[in-house]
Specification:
Layout lengths: L25 E5 L3 H7 L4 H21 L4 E5 L3 H6 L2 H20 L1 H5 L2 E6 L7 H14 L5 E6 L4 H17 L10 H5 L12 E5 L16 E5 L8 H13 L7
Parallel strand pairs: 1-2, 1-5, 2-4, 3-4, 5-6
């Protein structure tokens, strides 16, 4: 049965009526299922990644429409980089490189003052992708109204281990005077430091977190969607935002 959007959140005359609801400050997305979507349709894996990239473009438009200040995409996991075939990885990183270069010149980014950040083990990226990441970061670094994060290559466990290693290193170098490692101090060493933790996480295709933002999602509202990412649409987002607005966050209380 097809899920219908409640009448009271349907848009009228182009006005996003959801804006009257409690909306998240930060949406994180695990856009999974590109390869399986392609396989179902008899396509090559990279054709699924192409389709998924187009949905990321649409998702950015939707979040601008609803004035969501921050979006984070799990663009490339460290496991993907190591375990996928070289041909597929090459195609994925080429898509990411092209997307970053395009965003650097995108009027939507500049008109809406979106800061684009690439977070993760950047030294593992091919030089041309790293160059594209540096380029879009420089072009948008002055903006502070909205943020678009691409986590690539990224792993939650790696991020935590790296943070611990850097804290130990800074202590040995005398850069840290505090003897205690507080939650606030630890968070300064995460890739995502400086922004709010995700209020809402959307995961398509599977019902697991797959090493994504282990620390940051401790109190996030998580929505698992059975459909694959290339099939994700605006109605899905509306329903999620509507449901999110009805949930009461307790933060462990």
């Amino acid at each position: 049965m097809k899920t219908r959007i409640p009448v009271h959140i349907r848009e009228k005359r182009g006005n996003p009526s959801l804006n009257s609801y409690k909306l998240p400050r930060h949406i994180a997305v695990v856009p999974d299922g590109n390869r399986r979507w392609a396989r179902q349709k008899g396509l090559k894996p990279w054709e699924g990644h192409d389709a998924g990239a187009k949905v990321i473009e649409k998702f950015l438009d939707w979040c601008l429409k609803y004035n969501i200040p921050m979006i984070s995409f799990y663009a490339l996991s460290m496991d993907n980089l190591k375990k996928r075939s070289k041909k597929e990885v090459k195609y994925i990183v080429t898509i990411l490189k092209n997307e970053l270069n395009r965003l650097a010149e995108d009027e939507r980014i500049h008109n809406n003052q979106v800061k684009v950040k690439v977070l993760g083990d950047l030294k593992s990226l091919p030089k041309d992708v790293k160059k594209a990441a540096d380029y879009v970061t420089r072009k948008t670094k002055k903006y502070n109204k909205r943020t678009l994060n691409f986590l690539m290559p990224y792993g939650g466990r790696y991020e935590i281990i790296r943070a611990i290693e850097n804290i130990i290193s800074d202590k040995k170098k005398g850069k840290l005077k505090s003897k205690k490692i507080s939650k606030e101090l630890f968070e300064k060493y995460l890739f995502t430091h400086g922004g709010p933790d995700p209020d809402l996480v959307i995961r398509t295709g599977e019902k697991r977190m797959s090493d994504f933002m282990i620390w940051q999602t401790a109190y996030s509202e998580i929505f698992f969607i059975e459909k694959y990412w290339p099939d994700f649409n605006l109605n899905d987002l509306k329903l999620i935002l509507w449901e999110y607005s009805r949930r009461e966050k307790r933060f462990g209380e």
